[in-house]
Amino acid sequence: MASADSNNRKNSFKKLAEIETNQTPQPSPQTERNVMGTARNIGFFGNVLELYLSKAIGMLSALFGGSDLTDQASENIQDLRDGSFDNDNTIEPSGRAN
Amino acid sequence: MKTPSSFRGKSSKSPLSKKTDSEVIKLYLKTQRSDYFAILYKRYSTKVFSKCISLLKDEALAQDATQEIFTKIFLNLSKFSERSKFSTWVYSITYNFCIDFLRKRKKSKALFSDEMENPPDIVDDVPDSALLEMEVLKLKKVLELIPTGDKAILLMKYQDDMSIKEIAATLDKSESAIKMKIKRAKHKAQNVYRDIFPSNLN
Questions:
Q1: How far is A50 from B65, CA to CA, in rounded Å?
Q2: Among residues 99-158 of chain B, which lie with CB inside 8 Å of chain A?
Q3: N or C: which end of chain A has fewer CB within 10 A?
Q4: Are B184 and B150 in contact (CB under 8 A)?
Q5: Position A59 pLDDT exceeds 70
Q6: How far separated are the first and last CA of chain A, in Å rounded?
Q7: Cβ(B164)–Cβ(B174) under 8 Å?
Q8: B142-162: per-residue pLDDT in tens?
Q9: For B8, which DSSP code?
């Protein structure tokens, strides 16, 4: 701190900055509202895109005839087709479901 | 949405007010909460506004400029690398914005001494001490009378301690071009000082 003070004493530019910053009023509350409004809006839309964009692309893909299923779902369907599915609800010889 | 406990009560003694810029930026990037950005705004808005008034010489323009500069800062926060201090990064965006703005507005006028049609030959280097030890009010007057680009480059170097490399990156010029601009700006400042304060020749 002491070295900063002595540095300021030798540097008129820094003294001038101090004086000007002290004399300058804060930017208007409207400026702050606009900046923070922009920050909130961009943050909100960023989150929306992050959360829903992949789903929206999947829906569009399905709409145009593609598959919107995940890899796991596709694998399960393939298993069903191959007849190698594993289902806990299979009927035991005793006649009771698991 | 929940409010982080450190924001409740808005006490100036809250732990957040003691966090460094770098810590606040990391928190913002991790949580994307605009409240963290508000802390950075509060820390720097007056300094940015003051620089904008000083360079643009118009308070209404400075308000708009401050808003645009902070929007830029917000949009580029994830690109901030800690190679320089956050304050240096903020000020470089401020200078860049103001110089660009003035260039667009005054298409025909040169912003720097070395862009004028017949830049003066420089024989001697002006020592740093000639400017650093100038009386504050006289320095203020001198800075008002030199071209805005010269003023900006002197402020970057002597007020904000930006390195030649940082100034070069801010103005998108080579380091040697920046050294020449600083030399000419110092020369211009000294000449103006001699013109307006002839009795104080040093």
A1: 30
A2: 131-136, 139-140, 143, 154-155, 158
A3: N
A4: yes
A5: yes
A6: 76
A7: no
A8: 999 999 999 999 999 999 999
A9: G
Res B74: pLDDT: 92
Tokens standing for residue B118 = 């017949």
- A13 and B54: CB-CB below 8 Å? no
Q: Are B75 and A39 in contact (CB under 8 A)?
A: no
What is the CB neighbour count within 10 angstroms for residue B157? 22
Task: Confirm if B62 and B56 have CB atoms less than 8 A apart.
Answer: yes
Task: Find the angle CA(A19)-CA(A23)-CA(A27) to the nearest 5 degrees.
Answer: 125
Rounded CA separation A90/A84 (Å): 13
Dihedral sign, Cα of residue B154, residue B156, residue B162, residue B166: negative
Q: Please give the C-alpha separations between residue B70 and each of A90, B66, B89, B135, B153, in angstroms, as whole numbers.
A: 63, 6, 12, 33, 21
The token pair at B150 is: 């010269």
**Full-prediction pTM beyond 0.80?**
no
- At residue B84, φ and ψ (nearest 5 deg) are -125, 170
Q: Helix axis angle, B164-171 relative to B86-105, nearest 10°? A: 40
